[in-house]
């Protein structure tokens, strides 16, 4: 059966038995993770795969420890992002959403949503994610939608939501307002235009500098710093706006930077956030010059109907003609772009819905400060607090069709607003039935902010919300700390009075092999599905976690994927050996403590130490450390040492020293330890082992529902560890020496070993040392070996032993002497040539300094080599 089939088989098996659905047990504290809802915009990327891997590790670990464990999966409608991708597919059919109309367009988006929702489920199944699919939630479903309307109405009634005219970021392509977070700033090479504004009365003018000259059509003042000596006298006088000939005042405002441009700036309150604030202080008029598609409107006078950049050209041409354009300087400045479609955003004054954040932020700040929420790694707590302390109001209305329509109805007769959870029949004030709902929808992050409580049934009082809320850990990538995590804390506390989760664990982003951020534009995005097919899910999970640390970015490379696959293969080979050794099936495989050999006790001791490290590491969110600890134990101690020692033992096996019971016991325990990390290969091997061994301790239906191993300190055996670690050290040192001297595998070499008080114990492993290090004869010394003068031996000093290897046993001394003498002669000749050259005054005077230096360096190297060769030769005399 191929890898994919095995994975599918076990996933089905787990789902059919209902393992992913927790049983509510009021005597136990549940462990709850709400999955970050995946956007229905398209396929999964590696970030989703890492999220699923880390969460699955936590969840399986807690489940195996007996905690009622809920991992609730979800999908997000991803308002603007989805609308953009659906619009793009429609564009391929040459259809505009306005041609379709709102209803038909939404049908198309729902089709898309259903298709991708299934894809998301399918891909998470392939990743082995043990989510409770019976609780799968979608932001646009009735439950979460009711939560959205309820939260909106509550905030509105408390005065935390208001509608107002503010400068917002407008995306002309998406034709919607964006929040500050959805606007990405990039440095753009632009120009600074110096423009003359003539005085309304008398002669002269004031020059102002601007990066967006077309906005002068919306100017309602020119501002200077009141302390600026150059302009003090003119404050209060009037100027004429070029092109539209509007008369505007010169005002004094302390916000003006005397060093920027000429020190006098134009004020366009409807198109700039700073100017908007100035206008509030000075009661200036707002003149909006732009339509929502970024063409100029009737306030732009002669430029009406032009596209914004076309308008800029026309305005500049006219200024030039009138001699009002003083100069143009190149200027680098930061410009906002739409996060979803990359179009340059237009700051403009618009009537939108906002959440007043400051009063809501206060309890969310407190929850992190007083430790009710623990942010891991801790440095992000500072980032969070800093952002929350400086938070601005959140623009939540979007001029989109896909999303939760704002629950506000405007009376067409009296103008009153009716804000209710359910569709109102009549106007609150005049009881007219002539009501019209606000056409806008809410920011997609508004529904995400309610996710932990809305998925558990809020605002209804459900068994789920009473048992599973607050949740345990919120795990996500650090890049959505503000978008999502912070807002969940705000809304969770606001709606329920309690924090939404006790801990926030932030993982890093996955970069490519070179450390570059993966992005569609760079073309270096790796799709997880082909990787799952090529390497197997367990290997991909292993590779994704390798080299990660909380909050740090990591690189995914072929080397890591291969390491994952090799580890899975190594386990398979080990398991095959164990299962083959079990036959015949009826042998006694129970462990008799009194019959354990020293290497049995060593392995069991190492296993218990491994268990302790792993449990501590997972508990501290050091998943990578836990994984590599299990890997090193299984690969190194279990496969490379114990199995090799066991093979030697079974050659002359008696029932007295049969290693099979320990082989089975340790493999079975280590598989359970590894299960949360590599769920499929561990289940497959565990089931084969169960079948072959008929072990009475393996009665469970699945490894998934066994207990997670716990350390038994009584099994830590320091003496056994000292003995076997010393045996391993001895074998390793002899192997290294052989490798350094290129000793062929078929040559046996001599070694003498002294291991102090451990000698009698190490002696019992003589056969293992002989066969694994290819040593013959192996001589155990009774006391420290004293070296005799002129003796040609190698001595390896180890932690608890000393290994002496006579050179003659490794190399043919006479042949080696000849070889060394030949090499010395060759090097001596080259050294002589260099000496002669470097004493030649003609060479020294003519050659460039670099060449001379090079020759000098060569000479040093050769002399060093010569002296080492001569030492080698001397040792052989
Ligand atoms: Zn856009
Ligand atoms: Zn009314």
Strand order of the largest sheet: 7-6-15-17
Gross geometry: flat
Query: What is the subunit arrangement here?
Result: single chain
Q: What is the residue-averaged pLDDT?
A: 90
Q: Care to count the β-strands?
A: 30
Major beta-sheet overview: 4 strands, antiparallel
Instruction: Bin the helical content.
Output: 40-55%
Portion in strands: 15-25%
Number of helices: 28
- What are the segments in which pLDDT stays under 50 over at least 5 consecutive residues? none
Cα distance spanning the termini: 63 Å
Structural class: alpha/beta
Listed once per kind, the bound small molecules are:
zinc ion
- Radius of gyration (CA) equals 38 Å
Characterise this structure:
A 4-stranded antiparallel sheet has the order 7-6-15-17. Strands 11-12-10-13 form a 4-stranded mixed sheet, covered by helices on one side. The model has no long low-confidence stretch (mean pLDDT 90). With 877 residues, the chain is an alpha/beta fold. The radius of gyration is 38 Å and the shape is flat. 45% of the residues lie in helices and 17% in strands. The site of one zinc ion (ZN) has 7 residues, from loops.
